[in-house]
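Our collaborator T.R. sent over the components below with a one-line note: 'Predict the complex.' Nothing else. No constraints on interfaces, no templates requested, no preferences about which chain binds where. So this is a plain run: every listed entity goes in together, and whatever single assembly comes back becomes the starting point for the next discussion.
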Amino acid sequence: MARMRMKKLEEFLSGVDGFEKPKILLEQYPTPPHIASCVLYNVQAQYFDLEDKLVGDLGCGCGMLSIGSFLLGAQLTIGFELDPDAIDIFRNNVTEMEIPAIDCVQTNVLELTGSKWENAFDTIVTNPPFGTKHNAGMDMKFVETGIHLATGAVYSLHKTSTRDYIHKKSKDWKVKGEVVAQLNYNIDNSYKFHKSKSVDIEVDFWRFDVTEKEL
Amino acid sequence: MKLSTYNFLTSKAIKGVKVGYPLKLTIAKKDVVETEFNPTFIERLLPKLDWNTVYLAAQTVDLADDIPQEQPAAVADNEELLQRLHHLLLEIDVLEGQLECPETGRVFPITDGIPNMLLNEDEV
Ligand SMILES: C[S@@+](CC[C@H](N)C(=O)[O-])C[C@H]1O[C@@H](n2cnc3c(N)ncnc32)[C@H](O)[C@@H]1O
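Returned assembly:
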């Protein structure tokens, strides 16, 4: 059970402000409210991984997934983000929506492995940078960090084209990875990374059960 | 920044720093936000926390009388203590202040509730 209906959740998340001037190098595009509400709703309704949990959000940006986690009952959500401009918007969103149980730490996600944050969280959610020419494999580095930080499950979005590779990595890490949903992700035309105005890319929503992880 | 978050922060990523923990917390401005009390959550959180730093945080916000200096063996039946821990760890919100590395003195500012742990390239 989830404490809020999916439609209601989407309504709330539509009020979350996005990036003002998205930075291409950091791959700043917010998870669209429709996708965020759909995936988070299932994280709770199918797997009970949000309500009463300590949740971490890697690359939290303006807070879409952190705020969604709170709305679905997370006891405390901690977002990690390095960009000060995104953090300003995160702060405004959390203040405006009067959300008491969300924290944010300004830091580089890639520095969290081996820190005190290891095994701190029940659940990690992330919409990682998919990785471009400049930072190939960034999405996998975020997931690997997530696996270090979580004791229960890690949820992440990846391009469908990388599915086989991720299955292989999951085996290496002794985590049970499964594609929970396949989505059409529309990277908004405000984010002019691609030449065309607006592109749909195929994206998988993954769940990694990390209870028997070895890495 | 909640004091539960504070419990996990270190300056270990700085080049040459061995432990970088606990960071010295100075508070210029704080707030109290009410959140739902969930005893099971606190019970599950405690083993992940460093008790000395929990106590240190309590001292910093003048709540040391509420919290035992030594970690109690069992808390499950101690509803009153769980409630105090809930208040200390989840309801006190540090808005302005700083965290200081115990080894190098490097200061990490807390601005509008968010600690900035980012290091410059020459520090890592
Ligand atoms: C695809 S966006 C997702 C934003 C937000 N989580 C959402 O779902 O709307 C990726 C985010 O990761 C941040 N980011 C990229 N590299 C990072 C790093 N090394 N450490 C922390 N954050 C990073 C970006 O600034 C950006 O906000």
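Summary for T.R.: Chain B has a mean pLDDT of 96.
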